[in-house]
Description:
Strand content: 15-25%
Radius of gyration: 22 Å
Structural class: alpha/beta
Number of strands: 15
Low-confidence stretches: 11-19
Number of helices: 12
Helix content: 40-55%
Largest sheet: 6 strands, mixed
Shape: globular
Distance between the termini: 75 Å
Amino acid sequence: MNIKHLIAAAAAALVAGSALADITVGVTVSATGPAASLGIPEKNTVALMPKTIGGEKVNYIVLDDASDTTAAVANTRKLLTEHKVDIILGSTTTPNSLAMIDAVSEGKTPMISMAASARIVEPMDDKRKWVFKTPQNDIMMSLAIAEHMANAGVKTVAFIGFADAYGEGWFQEFGKAAGLKRLNVVASERYARNDTSVTGQVLKLMTAKPDAILIAGSGTPAALPQKTLKERGYTGKIYQTHGVANADFLRVGGKDVDGTILPSGGVLVAEQLPANHPVKKSAMAYVAAYEAAYGKGTVSTFGAHAWDTGLLMQAAVPVALKKAKPGTPEFRAALRDALEQTKELAGAHGIFNMSPKDHLGLDQRARVMVRIENGTWKYVP
Length: 381
């Protein structure tokens, strides 16, 4: 083969390669560190996501940020600059996800967070227009808790939460919900995710003699205040957030968390939902997929948040492919636009309807109330 033929063959190969460009998905989750009980099922779920979408091959690059904000940002920049990803999924926690916003907006690459705080997508601005998320907002779940408290005769409430953006976000949103339901917040305390003792904080809460206490933590670190409350003889009602909805929390909390009330996505009690519940079918689809891979009873709501990022991506990619090819700024922009136009997408947690002003898109169909009974989750009609 002469030099002209070699050049022609190389050019043809390049054209063929560009016509079959792979979609590259960057993922950063907290698979180790304090949030590992959330990040591990998310990482496991990514392994179940499709390897082709819209006829294009999908490559997943999964990194561990060890529950650390600095590592989350470093992972994000690595995914953007070295791997030139088309979309980023993650991270697991609110502080990490908030820290990633600058990087993805600078890189003009869409990101779908698996963390809860509304601050991740609100207020909408030039940076957050690149950011979406799948977990229910704090205010939605706060209203569910406040409503349950009011119906149960609770008048006074004490609060203890993480000393970070998750805890502060919950304190602000629950304060609004409590006001609407005429609940009096009589005490407020904070603790770090890696603390080993909260005795001082708990004693201050108990001094206020509240009818109920709300613990705003996530994963296994959320069990510490509750175990301490039980040790100190607190007999009032205890509520947790949807941040504890996994088997590891039940394992660590043991008998001390029995009776706890919390809001959750329907996926946590999918089999117990009425047949006509709007997310029963889509929630059961995730349960079936995850348990087939990892065993009966292994599902958590956190893995389901990851599953929903994959569903959003699967809906948006074919739309974006009509406008541009993967690996280009035009494709990333088209993907962002397509995510924003998502309508009536049934996920494991709820039904997504995105808009330019709403990058979550969930409504009240995405919440149920759950009680912990004998180490299991029970749907509260």
